[in-house]
Amino acid sequence: MADKEISQAVIARLPRYFRYLGELRDDGVERISSRELSRLMNVTASQIRQDFNHFGGFGQQGYGYNVEYLYAEIAKILGLDRTHHLIIIGAGNLGQALANYVDFGRKGFLVTGIFDVNPALYGKKIRGIEVRPMEEMARFVRENNVDIAVLTVPKSAAVGVAGQLVKVGISAIWNFAHVDLDVPGEVKVENVHLSDSLIRLSYLLNRKGAQEEGGV
Description:
By secondary structure, the chain is of the alpha/beta class. Helices cover 46% and strands 17% of the residues. The mean pLDDT is 91.
């Protein structure tokens, strides 16, 4: 694959391609055309071909795409052909829910440690993983090849915890705290603000209502 900048819009669609192709593979589908895939995903066939052309194309004229091959190639692009070791910082309701989400493991994301500042939670096991005090986090990261930290702490603590994670060499942070993190460029951050998603849904409902009123 050529060393070129890929747009964020294309990158955002890759997980959807991966998910749909995985479902097709599980259903025993061996090949699919861009037109058939477009109907499933509600993305134009032209857009699908353009997206895949960024990475080499993958298809054959008159044949379409081999589902198994394309699924494996997108997995490589997304870095899902190797195992990622995660720790969760914050063992509250959200942290526990994420730790219990079994699909992470199927995709190669292994939760190896859970940390919190609440002594009442120390020793509690979530899917067999013991909650540890934050004081043990730095050594745990170094000894267990951890590359991703999942941050589910309150907003007030997030910046400080992110600083600790940077110091111990974490490569990426999946941030559920309601604050955008400012970390060095070599540390990759994905901010997940659940309320933002709900507010976007509210906008769509509001827009729908306004259009219906305007049509009366």
